[in-house]
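To whoever is on call:

I kicked off a structure prediction for a single chain this morning and the downstream step that reads the tokens threw a length-mismatch warning. I double-checked the sequence; it's 171 residues and nothing unusual in it as far as I can see. Pasting both halves so you can look.
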Amino acid sequence: MDNIDSNPTRIIQINLQHGKVSTAHLCAHLTELSAYIALIQEPWVHNSKVKGFAKLSANCYYDDSCSRPRTCMVISHNVRTKPVPNSVSQDLVARQLESTRAKLIVCSAYFHMMKLTLPQVSSAASMCSHKNINAGLLVGCDANAHHTMWGSSNINVRGDNLFTCLVQTCR
């Protein structure tokens, strides 16, 4: 993807497990990059706010209406994105990249370990096929979904559900 300076945009996915130290390590890494999108699950949250990214030259997107957001997205200021309607919840954040090369929606999703349904993926995939968007989809998640289609050595129930959801929704 391109940013406004035509430098490559790095996309990083990480589960921070609510840690201050892991957040600090991620921030140290991000400061070395010129353009980035960080797709984060289980961010450090204090008093209902995602913490740790204020010193970056970036925007942090998450559902600020819930007490414990489980996902967020940190995007450097030089990467242009726009909101996708109805795409922010406790478990999903999506932004559409504004690029001359391709239309792409980038999502950070959290899959609760006790739920086998994946409504946030269906929602994100449906956004991509909307007539006004018609974009590709990149989902960053810590899904514990095993499937041979993305390189796992086996297929578990969650992986089969995710694969089926993507095949049915992203046509």
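Update from on-call: the warning came from a stale cache, not from the record. Cleared it. Sanity check on the structure: The CA atoms of residues 42 and 70 lie 5 Å apart.
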